[in-house]
Amino acid sequence: MNVTIEEAGPCKKVLKFEISKETIESEFEKKTVEVCDTVELPGFRKGRAPRKLVEKRFGPQIKDEVKQSVVSGCYQKTLDEHKLNPVGDPKFGEIALEMGKPLTFDVTLEVWPSFEVNQYKGLPLKKKPAEVTEDDLQKALRDMAIRKAQLTVVKDGKVQKGDQVICDCTVEVDGNAVLKDEDIEIPVADGVAVAATIIPDLARKLDGSISGEEREFNIKLSQDFVNEEYRGKEAKLELMVKEIKRLILPDINEDFAKTLGFQSLEDLKSQMKKRIEIDKRDGSKTI
Questions:
Q1: So where does this one cross the membrane (predicted)?
Q2: Helix (H, G, I), strand (E, B) or coil at 209
């Protein structure tokens, strides 16, 4: 891995990465072996499907996993080695992975400013009042409910952003089906890949659909599409919604409190309030 760090402002840096093709090929080999060992394909026992068939069927997904793994690992390693402390979320440039070539990408991030402070030890700091508001308490309770939420099948409802749907997928080019896939699980969010192609407004295109409904729209197939012949071509994507799943939060009531090991809802609120007070006081002591 080669990385250069450029100053883009007083508190902004640009990390420029170049990952060798050998690293990419090694990670691709590792991920492919993992899939070959676990996948079940019609006509073959688990882990016995031919590698060429596995790569044809799962190649785009394997490449996506390789890209995510390599990018995430190299980015985190650079932060650790150079002791960088980002503020907020980093901005990743375009990341195009081509087998047989090095992977290059840029990351722009804000960092904390560096400055020197003399004679700071022993200085008293004014403590902030550790007041817990009703909004603080309700937010903490909702966060806890989110952690206990369950993905539930929606039988009569309509698709909305944040759902997950089970679909049959068909891709057509010039009226001919070039890909058919059944029972694929798709998060209803913008920027999700379907048929190895990013759909920027997927949530809007699926919004309001119901089980049994087909939605179709035009796309341009990516360079990662499984069939090389059709990469970069205009196509029609058809998605048949078969099942809708939604994250359902539990009601915050007496039963919810007891499932968490508290005697009552008031007991839960009391303990949560104490925890929030401690968190608010944290860091307010003399240095």
A1: none
A2: coil
What pLDDT digit, counting tens, does each position of 35-85 carry? Answer: 888 887 777 888 888 888 888 888 888 888 888 889 988 889 988 888 888
Q: What is the mean pLDDT of each run of 10 residues along the chain (287 residues)?
A: 86 90 91 85 81 84 88 88 82 87 90 68 67 89 87 90 93 94 92 92 94 94 92 95 92 90 91 85 52
Cα 49 from Cα 56, distance rounded (Å)? 11
Dig out the tokens for 241 from the structure. 């919604």
State phi, psi for 138 to the nearest 5 degrees.
Answer: -65, -35
Rounded to 5 degrees, φ, ψ at 106 are: -115, 150
CATH hierarchy code of domain 152-248:
3.10.50.40
Spatial distance between the Cα atoms of 81 and 17, rounded to a whole number of angstroms: 14
Q: pTM for this structure?
A: 0.48
> Which among 50, 106, 63, 69 has a CA at the least distance from the CA of 231?
63
